[in-house]
Each structure stands twice: as C-alpha cells, then as structure tokens.
Amino acid sequence: MATATLTRKRKRPLPEYPFGIHSNGILMSPEEFDKADYEDFDPGFDYELINGVLVVSPIPMRQETDPNEELGHMLRSYRESHPFGMALDKTLPEQYLRCGRNRRKADRVVWAGLGRLPRKGETPTIAVEFVSSRKRDREFDYDTKREEYRKAKVHEYWGIDRFERIMTVHIIHNGFRKKVVTAKQSYRTKLLPGFELPIARLFALADQWDEDETGGENAQ
Questions:
Q1: Residue 99 and residue 177 in one domain
Q2: Which of 48, 67, 89, 203 is buried most, with the most CB atoms less than 10 Å from its CB?
Q3: Which backbone phi and psi does 6 adopt, to 5 degrees?
Q4: Tens digit of each residue's pLDDT (9 = 90 or more) over 82-95
Q5: Which of 195, 196, 198, 187 minimizes the C-alpha distance to 84?
Q6: Is 6 a domain residue?
Q7: CA neighbor of 26 nearest in space, from 16, 36, 39
Q8: pTM of the model
Q9: Residue 39: domain span
Q10: Are 209 and 63 in contact (CB under 8 A)?
Q11: The predicted structure's pLDDT at residue 139
Q12: Do 181 and 91 have their domain in common?
C-alpha cells in the first residue's frame, strides 16, 4: 500500500541585498540606518538618509572618482613629504557624516589638527563634494549640504565644480566666509599649512573621462 508523503514548499530565497534602488523613498529612522550592515546595501548605489527618507542614487561617475582619487593622493603626499604634513591626520573617500538626524555621504573627508586617529563617527575637519550637473543635486551640493555641514561643525566645505570650473570654499569655523577659487588658482588653507591644491589638475582628469563618455552625465 502506497503511503503519501508531505512535501514542504521550497522557500523563496531572500534577496542578496535588502536595500537597493527599489528602496528609494522608504521611511527609515537614523537608528535603523546606523544599525544597517554595509553588506545589506547593494554596492551599485549610494545611500543617504534625508528627513527620515532613504535616498538611493547612482554611484559617482569616473569624472568624479578619478579627481577624487587624485585629491586623496595629493593629500597623502603632503602628509608624507611636507614639513608640516602631520597637520593632516587622515583622509578618506565616501564617508558618512551625521548631520542632526540626517546621514550625508561626503565624497571625501579630511581630519586635521587632532594629533591622533579620528574616532568612529567623529566629525571631519573638511568635507569635499564634487558638484553634479543635475539641477536638484547642485542645489543640494551648494546650499543644503553647506548648511548641514555647518550644523555638524565641519570647519571647511569644498564644493568642486568641474562644470563652472571653480571650487567654492565655505569657511565655517569662527564665523562664515565664502571663497571662490578659479581653475587658474591654487587653494591654500590654514588647516593644512603648506598644502596647495591646484584646481586645474583635478579638472584636467575629469575632462579626460568626458572625452571618453558618449552620453556624459545625461546618460544617468
């Protein structure tokens, strides 16, 4: 006599990344965002928490990542070879800043003048953004982030704009000043004595990739 056997339905496999482009716009608290493991996020996108909403964006293009790498190289070379280079404690790309209950991802951050390694979650001395061509993102880069970084007590905010060929520096510590640096100039800051940033060098690297792209940023 044949006996019937129960067969369990095979469970549908969980998605490899719980958070991805499909997560754009979901509500999330800062505590939930901070607890999320980086392995939970699809690495093909960037994530920020803005006013309790998860914002998912494309990862930076090569026109931004190459100049960002070069900036990191110049900063590290300054630390290793300049007599005052120890003023630079650390620099890292793609780091989160706690701006009140928001979580912003800066293109690069710099800690200076601490005389030690920065602690986990410690506000950087300098925040750097490579400005996007999209109108909404430009408004964020120039206005919203500036105000958020001020509240987070960042000392300087550098907005590097390859489209306008300028770098806008917001000097926030001890008051507020704005300085515009053109492609023909180099930027110097008291936070990094002796360091010079030739802006044209970064724009030249971005231009190389612009020539290689068929659609540029309009393809995003």
A1: yes
A2: 67
A3: -80, 135
A4: 999 999 999 999 99
A5: 195
A6: no
A7: 36
A8: 0.77
A9: 21-58
A10: yes
A11: 67
A12: yes
* CA-based torsion, 29, 55, 17, 119: positive or negative: negative
Residue entry with tokens 């469970």: 11
Are residues 87 and 137 located together in one domain of the fold?
yes
> 183 near 205, Cβ under 8 Å?
no
Of the given ranges (134-138, 178-182, 190-194, 210-214), which has the lowest mean pLDDT? 210-214
Tokens of 94: 């793609």
Q: Is 171 exposed, middle or buried (0-12, 13-18, 19+ CB in 10 A)?
A: middle
E strands, 84-152, in order? 88-99, 102-112, 126-130
- Domain check: are 105 and 209 in the same one? yes
Q: What is the pLDDT of residue 151?
A: 84
| Residue found by looking up tokens 């100049």 in the block | 67
Q: Tokens 């520096």 map to which residue?
A: 169
Residue 16 lies in a domain: no
Q: By the 8 A CB rule, do 91 and 109 touch? A: yes
132 and 79 part of one domain: yes
The confidence score (pLDDT) of residue 29 equals: 87
Tell whether 110 is covered by a domain: yes
The Cα–Cα gap between 50 and 103 comes to 7
Could you tell me if 32 and 107 lie in one domain? no
Residue 2 domain flag: no
Between the alpha carbon of residue 17 and those of residues 14, 22, 127, the distances in Å are: 8, 10, 29
**CA within 13 Å, CB half, 13:** 3
Rounded to the nearest 5 degrees, what angle is found at the Cα of 202, between the Cα atoms of 198 and 207? Answer: 135
- Within this chain, do residues 45 and 147 fall inside the same structural domain, yes or no? no
- Least Cα distance to 162 among 123, 107, 97 occurs for 107
Number of folded domains that form the chain: 2
